[in-house]
Design goal:
With 352 residues, the chain is α/β, with parallel strands linked by helices. It is 24% helix and 22% strand. Strand 10, helix 4 and strand 11 form a beta-alpha-beta unit. Helix 2 crosses helix 3 and helix 4 packs parallel to helix 6. The termini are far apart.
Length: 352
């Protein structure tokens, strides 16, 4: 839903003209970043809450003004097959182009820039300095939905690439082809959500559609970007065996068996706070089913000390990476190969 007449009367310090938009008649503008394809009349605010039409131009309102900044282990994203143990300088602005009923970060994702109590001033060059000072080897665009701060993310990522930092994208993958291809030029890895394998549930649970997300997966795959797929198993919505089978079959037929799949346990949040947590037995069953179908690396998340926390060689089945929370006490890779059978393990690993 577009917020009619909700734009601020004046541009502020963190306003920045949008990228990839079209000017239409009567001073309207068409945003080209995501499949919502917002058409804004003067004074309107976008679905994602972070863009406005000001005087016939599209502006982002939170460029250089993140509301959440932290340094995280890369395993938290989660990214298990990309440079284990490195730090990710992580940031987000407000806003999201989805309306997930179970959002864990709804306080910022469903807020407008002026509605959060505390923000930071970090323009792209400031982000690079802060990341370097924190001894992070990467920058993660995360927490809310980075697609909504595309301009800020892209400009920061370009500088990060020049500075030798990795760029990590944690996203719902609801983005149009042209901005995605532009992002892929500077992207190193992505943790992308496949929230359901039903278009109907995507609309009801998340306020989006399935096909654009699948298109993003295909593009990331053909562009050679390392990415890992996140599926939150929500009781009564996405805990159906047939849906998991169809999802895994699509993955195998379209992008192959090597992209890690993370099955996450749901906990009651936001508008679904009366649902029970996902039974661990359901996650265990889905993991076994996905691996039987042929996906090589399937993980279970939000469950401590589960076999699905760890990485096992798809060839010899030996333990490669043991994870206890975000710690890695056991690491049996030599470069990109299994220490035991010398099999090449899909991912981007530390060089010998």
């Amino acid at each position: 839903m577009i917020f009619k007449g909700d734009a601020p009367k004046k541009l502020g310090k963190y306003s920045h003209e949008g990228y990839l938009y079209r000017k239409l008649k009567s001073d309207r503008v068409a945003c080209g970043i995501c499949p919502n394809r917002c058409i804004l009349a003067p004074g309107d605010r976008s679905v994602c809450r972070s863009k406005i039409n000001y005087d016939g131009k599209l502006f982002s309102l939170a460029y250089g003004n993140p509301c959440s900044v932290n340094t995280d282990p890369i395993e938290k994203k989660p990214l298990f097959h990309f440079k284990p143990r490195i730090k990710a300088f992580s940031l987000a602005t407000t806003g999201c182009n989805f309306r997930c009923l179970n959002c864990q970060n709804w306080e910022i994702s469903q807020a407008k820039p002026h509605e959060v109590p505390y923000t930071y001033e970090l323009f792209p060059d400031d982000v690079i300095r802060a990341a370097t000072k924190s001894h992070a080897q990467s920058i993660a665009y995360t927490y809310s939905e980075p697609i909504t701060f595309f301009e800020y993310m892209l400009d920061t990522a370009r500088l990060a690439k020049k500075a030798g930092l990795y760029n990590l994208w944690v996203s719902n993958a609801y983005i149009n082809q042209n901005p995605l291809l532009e992002l892929c030029k500077v992207l190193d890895a992505a943790s992308v959500n496949l929230k359901s394998f039903s278009d109907d549930i995507y609309q009801k649970l998340n306020g989006g559609r399935l096909q654009p997300v699948l298109n993003t997966f295909k593009t990331l795959h053909t562009q050679g970007i390392h990415f890992e797929i996140i599926n939150l198993v929500v009781p009564g919505y996405t805990d159906d065996d047939d849906m998991i089978m169809r999802m895994c079959t699509w993955i195998l037929e379209n992008i192959g068996p090597n992209h890690p799949l993370h099955l996450l346990r749901f906990f009651p949040r936001y508008k679904l706070d009366r649902l029970p947590p996902t039974p661990v037995s359901t996650l265990t069953r889905f993991r076994e089913l996905a691996m039987q179908l042929g996906i090589r690396y399937v993980y279970v998340g939000n469950v401590a000390r589960h076999e699905g926390n760890h990485t096992y060689c798809h060839n010899c089945k030996n333990l490669l990476i043991e994870r206890l929370g975000y710690r890695i006490p056991t690491y049996n890779l030599v470069g990109n190969r299994c220490k035991f059978c010398n099999t090449n393990i899909p991912g981007v690993w530390h060089e010998v």
